[in-house]
Specification:
The protein is an alpha/beta fold and 185 residues long. It has 3 helices and 7 strands; from the N terminus they run βββαββαβαβ. Helix 2 packs parallel to helix 3. The radius of gyration is 17 Å and the shape is globular.
Length: 185
Amino acid sequence: FVVSFFFFLILIPYPSANFFSLAPLAGGGGAGGGGGAPPPPGMRVGIMGPVGRPVRQAEWYVMGADETGLPALARLLETLPAETKGIAFVEIANDGERQTIDNATGIELHWLTRDGVPAGEDRLLAEAVRSVAWPQGGSAFGWFAAEAAAAKIVREYWRDTPGLGRDQTLAAAYWRRGSAGLMAG
């Protein structure tokens, strides 16, 4: 008896049609670390998620995600109120990895490319998020989902420098460089 695991990101759910689109995670030591060949057509699959604590409603957001956090970030941009403002960064391998996001908000979306640097080995995303000045008035929230070391950098910065708490931020480790398997973060 053999059990195989295949790791995918749910990109867009279509609950009314009992359908969703998927993107396979890269195999080996890349972002997400799971994978292998895709399952054969007709194979039964199990689904898990979304998990984690909810994102607090705010007037302004700063967001950051790598490829593993991109589906969640896209869902936020597609579902937050239209009057929501802020800035979001997505780190991808190269320009060929850009995806269409129906951003329904006033949040500016910026794509950051690693251009040959392996996933999890640079600090491009963490530094971009850290460079954003938070607004002085109104409600704000910081959201980050990426590799564990980058999430730690952002979380510690948000706690130490502007003094933001768990009620104002969420920095989640979606995976850990050098680790593979289910929930490697």
